[in-house]
Specification:
Layout (H helix, E strand, L loop, with lengths): L3 H17 L4 H13 L4 H7 L1 H15 L2 H24 L3 H24 L21 H14 L13 H16 L4 H15 L4 H9 L4 H4 L4 H4 L2 H23 L2 E3 L12 E6 L9 E6 L5 E4 L1
Antiparallel strand pairs: 1-2, 2-3, 3-4
Helix pairs in contact: 1-4, 2-5, 4-5, 7-8, 7-9, 8-9
Length: 302
């Protein structure tokens, strides 16, 4: 029987290769051979999510032109899919029956709780993602995957040659986010929402197309910042604001009359600049504003 810990270790190494796009053929071949020699069951496949990891690795191999590794990865995935299909058809082994009993207990508890809270509450909407082909039954994760898939779907009549399956990409994006967070708390939800908002932005269609075409991998968009996902117009606008802020800061520092007659009360140095402004009536003396060029302290000198 395969060890979950061993499978997760191999999965982690394969994921690192896929995300860095630096596939080493020798070590990768050894890991695939090790996985092929392990006896898998539904519990291990579902808990380790090794199927998704090998699928991401397969895509990285195809991009790198390593057809042999890509074919071996595809064959592994097909074998594991048959195992899942057989388990769903026959009821699975003892581990699968135990999982079903746990699901049944959870479902019964949920029904009792629901009856106590309200008898008129409508049942929650079911996710369009099939549990049979999914590696999770978590309702939050399934809903996030569905929203990501909807954000990736192109409008009707918008052909994109070479585009990949939006559902497959959505699963990979959500899986990468969950692998990093390891829970579905607010931080996880905010990360998913930011991906959805940028993918649905009508002014940023290029981002969606790059993701569908594989130019931006799911593992990468899962960790991209808002600045990195922004469209070209927004990037130029942010650059403009940044330059203006830098210029304003430099102007504030550089303007004024240099003097060493005034001493900064904060750092004690005398490298200062001052400006005089008429803030009171004309017959009153001007007010002197002093700026320390060393520590940035400002004060009014009367």
């Amino acid at each position: 029987m395969s060890s979950e810990e061993d499978v997760m270790k191999i999965g982690k190494k394969l994921k690192e290769m896929a995300s860095s796009e630096t596939v080493e053929q020798g070590p990768a071949q050894d890991m695939l051979d090790t996985l092929r020699g392990m006896k898998m069951n539904m519990k291990v496949l579902q808990k380790t999510r090794i199927g998704l990891t090998v699928n991401s690795f397969r895509k990285a191999c195809e991009t790198a032109g390593l057809d042999s590794l890509a074919k071996q990865s595809k064959a592994l995935i097909k074998d594991w899919k048959k195992l899942l299909d057989q388990g769903n058809a026959k009821g699975g082994d003892d581990d699968n029956k135990a999982l079903k009993r746990e699901d049944s207990i959870s479902s019964t508890s949920g029904e009792v709780s629901s009856r106590k809270s309200s008898t008129d509450t409508p049942p929650p909407k079911q996710s369009s993602f099939s549990l049979k082909n999914s590696d999770t039954t978590d309702s939050v994760r399934l809903k996030c995957r569905e929203m990501l898939k909807n954000a990736l779907v192109l409008p009707e009549g918008t052909p994109l040659e070479g585009a990949m399956d939006p559902e497959e990409i959505a699963i990979a994006i959500e899986d990468s986010i969950y692998t990093e967070m390891m829970n579905t708390d607010m931080k996880y939800k905010n990360r998913v929402r930011s991906r959805i908002a940028n993918l649905k932005d009508s002014k940023n269609v290029q981002l969606k197309e790059n993701v569908l075409l594989g130019n931006i991998r799911p593992e990468k968009i899962a960790v991209m910042t808002a600045e990195e996902m922004a469209n070209d117009a927004m990037k130029k606008l942010r650059e403009k604001f940044t330059k203006e802020a830098i210029n304003d800061h430099q102007m504030a520092v550089q303007t004024g009359t240099q003097t060493d007659l005034l001493k900064c009360g904060k750092c004690g140095k005398r490298r200062c600049s001052y400006n005089q402004v008429q803030t009171r009536s004309a017959d009153e003396p001007m007010t002197t504003f002093v700026f320390c060029n060393d520590c940035g302290h400002r004060w009014k000198f009367c």
